[in-house]
Every structure is written in C-alpha cells, then in structure tokens.
Amino acid sequence: MASFSTLNLSPSPKPTHSLLKPLIPAPEIDTRTQIQTPYPKLILTGPSQLSGHVSISGSKNSALPILAATLCCSGTSRIQNVPDLFDTRTMASVLVSLGAKVEVLDNEMLVNTDGVGSVEPNADEIQKIRGGFFVIGPLVARFGEAVVALPGGCNIGVRPVDLHIRGLQSLGAVVELRDGKVQAYAANGRGLVGGSFQLDYPSVGATETLMMAACMADGTTVLSNVAREPEVVDLARFLTNCGACVDGAGSNKLVIKGKSQLRGCECVVAPDRIEAGTFMLAAAITRSCISISPVIPCQMSSLIHKLSAAGCKIKKCSHDTLEVSAVSGRGGDNLLSVVVKTGPYPGFPTDLQPQIMALLTTCNGLSSVEESVFDKRMSHVSELLKLGAKIQENSMIVLTHVCYHVSVLNGSSLVANDIRGGMSLVLAGLAAEGTTEISGVAHIDRGYENLDMKLRFLGADVKRLMPLAS
Ligand code: EPU
C-alpha cells in the first residue's frame, strides 16, 4: 500500500493567488462527456478571398508544459507570449489549486510555486485538458509525491498515460491507479533517481513529463526514442534557463543530469506552428495570398512540402515571415491532389491533418490522408461530407481517407467535435458557397486565440453568434 506521508495531502489549499485578470469561465462543453450546447456559433459566408498579414500567437502546446515546469522552480518564472486560451488558463488554475501564485496580464503569466502546499491538483481542472496531467513529473520530482487525476482533452482516440507511468517507475517512483487518480511517490522516501527508459512510441507528453522529472532526479537519466517535436525543444530550453542540464533536445535521445534545485526564469513562448500551418492552409483553400509571422520556417517543412506539391507558392520573406500564395488564374481548380500520412515530428503533424483534408477536397485529383498518431481523429469527415465534400473511408487500407477530385462545397450546419477537426470546418466554410454555421465552437477556441478577429482582418466574412442574455 502506498504511503503518502511526507507531504500533507489534505485538500488543496484555498488559492492565495493574485490574478490580475479573472480566469475565464468554463466553456460551453464538457470535454469529458462531449455534451454540447449550441452557442456560440460561427457563421461564415463564402467563398472568401483572403489578403494581408496575420500575426501568429504563442504555442499552446509549448506553453502548457512550460507552465507545468514552473513547479520545478523556486522563485518566480515570467512566461511571455502565452496564448490567452481556455487550456492555458485551465493550466494556471491547476497550478493555483496546488497553492502556486499566478498573475495573468495579457499574454504574460508570472508564476511562483514556492507556496505549493499540496501534491493533488484539482481533479476537475485536470480533467478539462490533456496537458494538466504533465504536472505529475515535476510534483513527484520536487515534492516526492503526486496524486493526479487521469486527464481529459480532445476526444480523438485512446489517450493512455502508460508511458508517463512506466517512465516514472524507471526513475524510482511507485505508481498506483486508485479511483481514477494516478498516485506516485518516490520509493526511497527521498526523491527520484536517474535511470534509463526507452519509450515504445515517441509520445510528446510522456517525453515532457519524464524530462521534467529527470531534471530533479538524483544522477543521470537517459531517455531514448523520445519525441523530437519543437514543443519538446521549447520545454528543454526553459528548463535549461532555469539551471537544468538537458542534452539532446530535438534528437531521439535525451541525457539529463539531475539538479537538486532549479530557479524560475524568464521565457518567451515560441510561435504556434499549428496555428501558422492552419492559416497557410486557409490561404490555400481560398486560393488567396497572405503573409504570416512570426513563424519558424524550418518547423513548417512537412507542410511546405505538401503545399508546394499541390501547387502553392511559398516565399520566405524574412527569417520569421512566410508568404503563401494559391491564387488561381482560372477558377479554383489550380491545386493538385497529394498523399498525406501523419507521423511524429518531423513527419506531417496530426494537428494539421483535419485542416489539410479540408483543402484536399478542393484539389484536382485523388488525394489520400492517413492518420497514424491517433485512432479516432476523423470526426470532421462526416461534417465535411455535409458540405458536399467527396471523401471515402477506405477500410482496406488502414484509416486512409480518399478525397476525390474537386468537390464543390456548399454551406451547411456543422458541429465541431475537437480543436483541429473544428478548425477544418472553418477552413471549409471559408471556401464553401453560401452560409456555413458551426456549433461546438468552444472546441475550436481552445486552440486559436482571437480566431474570428484574425479571419475578419484577412477579409473573411465571419460572425460569432452568442447566446441571448436571459
Ligand atoms: N500514447 C500512448 N501512451 C502514452 C502516451 C501516448 O500510447 O502514455 C499514444 C497516444 O495514444 C497517441 C500517441 O501516443 O496515439 C501520441 O500521443 P502523444 O503522447 O504524443 O500526444 P499528447 O502528448 O497527448 C500532444 C499535444 C497534441 C498533439 C500530440 C501529437 C499537448 C497538450 N497536446 O498530445 O495536441 O496532437 O502531442 O503531436 O501538447 C492539439 O493541440 O489539438 C492536440 C491534440
């Protein structure tokens, strides 16, 4: 039986934080049950022609683990360029529920975890987002114990945490699952110890959890077959600035020398490559020309490769600015089909699969899309069909979806079921003739800061319908 006596595990203390801006209310969906209410809705009238420039926000998937990593640090961490999203604010609530002080001012968060007095974050907050679970690594590494509810997040397939757990066990943690919570503590009663662990699959979240844990373990840890995603590199950069010793970020092997203490530091979250890619696809599906910045062009290689193969022109205007042009001389059939298969970085990102599928329904020829990261990330297909898209599921070839020739899309009423799938409906709505009405918008809002404003700025006809005040 596990003992949890080294820290007081009484209910989380009442927040003593100072939030300059209140945490935003829960969205109109419950990510655990996928219950939806119809509002807000996005109303798009197309087809749209886009032009001009769009600013890319900070990366959600970099900000979330960096916020979790502040639990490793004494003193205050100042995290800038945090996108103002439901997920980042939920992560702030997770930290606050542990006793951390979090100040939010526009896109900046000041986090001080010196007052943390609990190792059990609020389960309701953890279950709203996948990234909340990542606190298990820093908690058990710094405080010797953690009790963390199983996470929520988008409904895109089975999302186990076995790699996180087995990795922590290889660092000397005892881990048990009880009442939907993962309870972990250092077996030696003192702290984690360096070890070796090979991930069966290069999971982004497990790599991040284990990197944070290893930074404070006693001795050296070698993690192999780790994720190489830019978000992992961003986290390693933050931890290194806090005094950690992490080698190999961006490769498939990490060597981490543990330190007994890390100090909070300042950091600027990198631009969101998935938001950037989504706007590049918006330019393509509307056969428009737009520029985007800031963006790190080398992180966009797999998308640039597919867009170029389809016939788009991508120009690097400066070190952090790209111009995407798909302007057609004759009608809208100038782009060609391509074959897409998602995979871990540097492969084609699963987080852009639904959006590129929307584009491919408008391209000339037979495209195919294979999702290899998540087993149920296809909820957008049934909605795209309602617009008139020609997509067929080919069960003979594992999870391949074939988009046939040029589909003429016509507006319809659609439901977003997850962040990226929802965004693919927005892209299709931009290209479709007439009015497209999208509900389940809270899903989309989780990943895209100021979405409607950015689209309107580019010339799209987008309105947001809010519920009538009762
Ligand atoms: N997996 C396991 N066991 C584990 C962990 C993962 O089998 O212990 C499997 C998953 O079931 C999945 C695959 O590994 O089939 C990849 O999952 P991964 O752990 O890499 O994903 P994640 O860390 O849960 C992050 C992003 C996702 C993004 C994926 C892949 C965050 C908060 N989320 O999720 O982002 O799709 O990496 O790049 O960083 C999104 O932003 O819309 C989103 C879903």
TrEMBL record:
- Domain Enolpyruvate transferase stretches: 45-452
Which principal EC class is assigned to this enzyme? Answer: transferase
Q: Name a single GO cellular component.
A: cytoplasm
Q: What does the record list as GO biological process?
A: cell division; cell wall organization; regulation of cell shape; UDP-N-acetylgalactosamine biosynthetic process
Name where it's found: Cytoplasm
Q: Which Pfam families match?
A: EPSP_synthase
Q: Which superkingdom is the protein from?
A: Eukaryota
Known catalytic reactions: phosphoenolpyruvate + UDP-N-acetyl-alpha-D-glucosamine = UDP-N-acetyl-3-O-(1-carboxyvinyl)-alpha-D-glucosamine + phosphate
Question: Which InterPro entries does the record associate with it?
Answer: Enolpyruvate_Tfrase_dom, Enolpyruvate_Tfrase_sf, MurA_subfamily, RNA3'P_cycl/enolpyr_Trfase_a/b, UDP_GlcNAc_COvinyl_MurA
The record's GO molecular-function terms, alphabetically, read: UDP-N-acetylglucosamine 1-carboxyvinyltransferase activity
Q: Which pathway?
A: Cell wall biogenesis; peptidoglycan biosynthesis
Comp. bias (Polar residues): 1-11
Under the heading Gene3D superfamilies, the entry gives: Enolpyruvate transferase domain (3.65.10.10)
Family matches, as CDD domains = UdpNAET
- Region Disordered, annotated ranges: 1-21
Supply the EC number(s): 2.5.1.7
Key words, A-Z: Cell cycle, Cell division, Cell shape, Cell wall biogenesis/degradation, Cytoplasm, Peptidoglycan synthesis, Transferase
Q: Which family does it belong to?
A: Belongs to the EPSP synthase family. MurA subfamily.
List the HAMAP family hit by this protein, alphabetically: MurA
NCBIfam families referenced in this protein's UniProt entry, alphabetically = murA, PRK09369.1
- Its name, as the record gives it, is UDP-N-acetylglucosamine 1-carboxyvinyltransferase
The upper taxonomy is:
Eukaryota, Viridiplantae, Streptophyta, Embryophyta, Tracheophyta
